[in-house]
């Protein structure tokens, strides 16, 4: 049985607002269920690659300067000397540098060295940490954990990818972590339809009809799990989205058993019902 992550509304940062598309219009009310699976071929921005590698290859020499495109975690604000001591016996920096330069313990990366995602949908945000893999090719919980968003209007889902800054200033929070890119998801805000084959049609006509139906379904937006390209960075992310329409309907007078009239007025009657 998978666990469910409930989304907490947070105040958007200016950078986050710039990456979120404006609302597309009204939609049927329902629930958008999001699952985050894995990423591949992530890389650091070019101007951080050498500095990031040097930070882990020789932590005692100091780190790299903080820039506006980086965000940080208070738990990673230890001094370089303390970091060097903590890595000396149990962790080993990875050869080759780049985004995978962080040390591993018995070949595995600590979760604090893996990327995390910021899911942003209609002013609701939730942070999702990767659970395994490498900084370049991380894995999230996939179908084991889903994130639910209330839908009142149609808008894009933004998935922003960050890597913790090992040299963030104390108290900087996430504001100095390294931005790796963003993925925009255009969910389908109605439940998927099943193709109904015409038994009287020829084989060629059925194939054309099926292809046209599939193309029309794709144009309605994503429904299910797909690989999507990262913008403002490299690589791609495997993301699942499913929309469940609210099945509650508007009540009508026919839904009640009328018992008696309890009052009358100029605008109508007041009735007791069951």
Topology:
Elements: E1 3-6, H1 14-18, E2 25-40, H2 46-57, H3 80-88, E3 104-105, E4 108-109, E5 116-121, E6 124-129, E7 132-133, E8 138-139, E9 145-154, E10 157-163, E11 178-185, H4 203-219, E12 224-229, E13 236-245, E14 258-265, E15 268-273
Sum up the structure in keywords.
274 residues; alpha+beta; Immunoglobulin-like; 5-stranded mixed sheet; 4-stranded antiparallel sheet; 15 strands; 16% helix; 35% strand
The percent range for helix content is: 10-25%
Can you count the beta strands? 15
Strand content: 25-35%
- The number of helices is 4
Provide a descriptive summary of the structure in words.
The structure is a single chain. This protein is an alpha+beta fold and 274 residues long. The protein has a single domain, classed as Immunoglobulin-like. It has helices spanning 14-18, 46-57, 80-88, 203-219, and strands at residues 3-6, 25-40, 104-105, 108-109, 116-121, 124-129, 132-133, 138-139, 145-154, 157-163, 178-185, 224-229, 236-245, 258-265, 268-273. A hairpin with a 2-residue loop joins strand 5 and strand 6 (124-129). The protein is flat and about 85 Å long. The protein starts with a strand and ends with a strand.
In short:
The chain is an alpha+beta fold and 274 residues long. It is built from 4 helices and 15 strands.
């Amino acid at each position: 049985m998978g666990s469910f992550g409930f989304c907490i509304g947070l105040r958007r940062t200016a950078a986050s607002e710039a990456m979120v598309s404006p609302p597309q219009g009204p939609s049927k009310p329902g629930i958008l269920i999001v699952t985050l699976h894995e990423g591949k071929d992530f890389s650091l921005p070019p101007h951080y690659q050498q500095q990031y590698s040097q930070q882990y290859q020789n932590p005692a020499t100091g780190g790299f300067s903080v820039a506006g495109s980086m965000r940080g975690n208070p738990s990673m604000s230890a001094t370089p000397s303390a970091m060097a001591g903590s890595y000396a016996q149990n962790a080993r920096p990875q050869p080759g540098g780049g985004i995978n330069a962080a040390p591993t313990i018995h070949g595995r990366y600590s979760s604090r060295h893996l990327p995390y995602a910021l899911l942003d949908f209609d002013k609701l945000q939730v942070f999702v940490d990767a659970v395994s893999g490498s900084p370049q090719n991380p894995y999230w919980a996939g179908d084991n954990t889903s994130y639910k968003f209330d839908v009142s209007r149609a808008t894009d889902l933004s998935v922003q990818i960050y890597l913790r800054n090992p040299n963030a200033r104390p108290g900087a929070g996430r504001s100095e972590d390294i931005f790796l890119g963003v993925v925009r998801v255009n969910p389908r805000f109605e439940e998927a339809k099943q193709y109904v084959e015409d038994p009287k049609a020829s084989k060629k006509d059925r194939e054309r009809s099926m292809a046209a139906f599939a193309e029309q379904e794709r144009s309605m937006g994503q429904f299910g799990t797909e690989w999507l390209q990262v913008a403002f960075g490299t690589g791609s992310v495997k993301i699942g989205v499913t929309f469940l329409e609210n099945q509650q309907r508007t009540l009508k007078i026919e839904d009640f058993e009328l018992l008696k009239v309890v009052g009358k007025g100029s605008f109508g009657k007041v009735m007791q019902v069951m």
